[in-house]
Amino acid sequence: MDTLLIDRVWLFLATILVLSMQAGFLLLEAGRVRSKNTISVAQKNISDLTVSWAAFFLVGYWLMYGHGVPATDLSGDERSNDILRFLYQLGFCATAASIVSGAVAERMKFVAYLILAGVTASLIYPLAGRWVWSDLSGSGGAWLAQIGFYDFAGATVVHGVGGSVALAAVLIIGPRHGRFDEKGQVRPISGHNSVLSLQGVLILFVGWFGFNGGSVSPADHQFASVMLATASAGCFGALAGIISGSWLDQGIYNPSRISSGLLGGLVAITASVNLVSVAEAGVIGLLGGLIATLGSELLLRRCKIDDPIDAIATHGLAGLFGTLVVAFVSMPTALPTGGRAEQFVVQAIGAAAIFTMAFSVAFFTLKLLSMLMSVKVSAEQQKLGLNTTEHGEAIGTDRVTRALEDQLFEKSSPLSSFEIEGDGETEELAAAMNQLLDRHEQARQIIAESQIRFEQFARTASDWLWETDASLKFRYLSVESDIVAQSDLVRMKNQYLHGLLKWDENEFDSVNELIEKRLPFDSHDAELLLPNGDRRLVDVRGIPFQENEIFAGYRGTFQDVTERRNAEKRAIYLSHHDALTGLANRRALVMDLEKTLSREPAAIAAVDLDGFKAVNDTYGHSVGDQLLLEVAKRLRASVAKFGSVYRTGGDEFVLVLRRDANIPNQKTLVDGCEKLIARLSLPFHDKERELRLGASVGVSLAPEHSRDADELMHLADLALYKAKSEGKGCVRVFETYMDNDAQHKVAMETALRTALYNNEFELHYQPQYNNDAKTIKGFEALLRWNNDQLGSVPPRTFIPMAERLGLMVPIGDFVLRSACQFAATWPASDRRSALTIAVNISSVQFNQSDIASKVSQMLDETGLAPERLELEIQKDILIENLPSVVRTLSTLRSFGVSVAIDNFGVDYSSLRHLKELPIDRLKIDRYFVRTLEDSKRSREVTHSIIMLAHKLGYVVTAEGVERKQQSDILKSWNCDTMQGYLFAQPMNTSQVMDMLQRIPDDYDNLRSDAA
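The structure corresponding to this sequence follows.
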């Protein structure tokens, strides 16, 4: 067969394959866009083919090759080769225009696109072809080819031109409506039919054999290798798309990735397909596929370039790569420039020149066109779809989609049924949608009812409900109407979470960290700032929520905890403070003292009020409370500059003093405490009453005595006890012996509690003599305590302790019963039967028991005659409730019992009520008896007491008589009875019985023996 004929037939077949690529582009683009735009895309593809034909036929071919107008020049058999070349180049030209169609799909106006396609076919593509290929026809002008630029089948001339024009168009018209959110993040827009687009890719793959193979004769030895290299590049490009797409989409195999990879591989091989081996073609295709896939993602994510079919990356970037890679394939001698570096420079110059020309012409064409008309369809038209808005047509389900959008955009009555006529498929879809709308209406009603219930619950709930958007601006806020006015609520909703709430620094950091991580936050306190100026403390809880799988904000609750937190603060305050005085309490003392001791030397002063109990019992607790408040005030004022005050008990206070320049030494400390006592001893005024208290102070020092807080307080208490035991109203600083005394005291108290049970008490009896100092009037019962460990403990030691421990009543009962029992056993005689037994009754025993009933009962039990019993009461009983005291004493005397006042002196309380008391005897305080010989005052006082008592009809007894001179003086004043060591020491029961047996004999001998 004729070789020329074979070449013509092959060129014709290649032309058909290239033109069939228009069908591939149509299917690819139609499948990659939404169904509402498929008719528009298809019509643009067919239209750009016709426009390209006209423009290239009329202007472009002549501009590219310089052969005049094809309609007149390309006729006759002799021009067959030129005609086939024209048709072949027409396919290339239409391909360049179709590339732009996919990039601007779904948003460029039809007319504007046709104008751009015409400019591409008549000017841009012809110029690029002229610069590279015009020398092939012998017409000249291929300046790029002349400097060595090589592009075998149009990687730059066709695909680079298409990519450059597409880039200019996309930059002018911008992205599709809704492609990016307000933050610039990509919103997914998927094509409606991936199968359709893949069919288009397969058609393009087949057409590419004509695209690359049309430039080589079948008779040429390169023909087969060109075909094989084309297939290899396409397949490896598809493989690159699968791999890179899986990585980009996190394991998802998106059909668009294989499409971009396959086409990128085909585009990349186009420039050097006749120069490479099959292996090299595979590598170039693989890299081209990667560039197309990754490049499209980069342009979308980073550059915000919206390209529905990835045309710019697939044709522009992969075409650029294919053009530049020419310099690195084959042998350098096969390259037009003869060297790789030189060839690379030439390839770069050529690619840059064509890109600059194509981009500039397209950009300024669209800029000029946009001044005359709108080149981009409106957002509303994009929502509705170009099928209907530009072409008045709809694909089957488009009518249903349009009707549904009318519902959504409220262009028809809400939730009305679809009434659509059409093919069976459309009617079935409409019927299904109507059923869906019916269900939607039912769901809407349920939601509306739920919303009403929710609002009712929100209004009555104790918690406030809230919701924010992603920026933390409130979208919903339910606050009780009686707290916030409706107008104020609107203003609150326009605020942000952190603007409406005031957090402390720690809470803010904690919550903000959780919010930044989109995590829930639970139970954080914040101050809610209300528009009226009020502030409420709220417990804030929130959880993040999503809409369309994107973080949309937070929902949560505010719980008003103002009152609860105030109550908690009050409880915490009260747990560390005294409710009456507001002073810190013992718990706070321990905590504060430990902190103070860790920093500096300190002194602890334990303060106890003297006489407070008597005032509190006499005038009542309200007066006592007022006294404590005034005491607290004076203490605060005294130590405000160098210490703190704590109330640790009823009338007990503790001062923690800093030993700094204000207290340089122990003397200064003691002087300060004495001034404090003086200040507390100043009178307190309560209405018309003037009250006086005293105070005792015990001091311990840190670090000298201890560094432990509890130990220091204990030592201060020991010093305080010492101060009180030494007469009160003084200051004592702790010394080591005090601790020993305290331990001894504790041991004594422990033993005293069991002494009565262990029969450790016994009575001794001291005789009381008549004025003649010879005859016995009776005996006084004296209590003695003998303990195995403590030995003989004197009454002056254990009696106050027994009163403090609450043991005095049972001990007093023991004394009274034992004395009565013993007296009832004395031998009978006239003289013995007249002897009396005197028993001391403590003030505690007198006040805390029904003493009259108890005495009567014991007299009955023991059989002792009442007139033989004499009860000695303490003078401090007289300051108690006098009417009650008088009644009790009168009852006792009515039994026949005698009553004496013990330790009588000249103090006001003794004399004031003397004439009112139903008593029989006064016992002169031993102090006056002891000093009779040396003190004129004692003699005057004692003589006055005896005369006063006799004048009132009372008998007088002097106790503590130890010397004869004392006895003589008392006799001269007619003192009725005396007792003391001068006459006899206290004796046990056997000694008493022995004495009583000898009473009828010789009294002088009896007294001297006893003495």
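The chain has five domains: 3-372, 397-451, 461-565, 579-734, 759-1010.
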